[in-house]
User: Fold this.
Amino acid sequence: MSSPLVLNGNKHASLTNSLVILIFSQEISNCQKNAGSLGQTPHLCQRYNPLAMNLEIKLPRSIFDNIITQARDERPQECCGLIGGRNLQASNRYPLRNRSPQPETRYFAAPEDLFEAMKWMRDADEDLIGIYHSHPCGPAYPSQTDIELAFYPQAVYLIVTLEPETEMRAFHINAREVIEIAIVVVD
Assistant:
């Protein structure tokens, strides 16, 4: 029996047709505590930022499920990939090979995979709307390295964790500021 799925801190035994996960379920003190435990300063966590209140990324169920499956299949290594679409509505997922010398704790997308994925996005008239990776044993929150290597401020960064339970969260990262945003899973 699989454990319940957790998205943005909310447990779900099963998903409904259109599931909206709200991000404001924890107190800001919990956010600050979590940020501090990750070696970050509490000001990096902006749960109540008004900008984030209007942002959400929409993932078709198939893309959502395939990201989680990829994370499970590639465990104990971190998985990674890109999401193409328009206006934060995902159309396609582009899984990438992790070529990091430390794949259990870092990801570095294979350059040839990145090149191909960007070409496919261009051919499909898509924008890069998301970058995802997994933290097989860590929290679904950007690490200091994730924050430092967030070079695409227009993209949403999705992080999947598998332990202690499966969870996916989404973030906007710009100039070292982390803002959690909502994930909407649609059928």
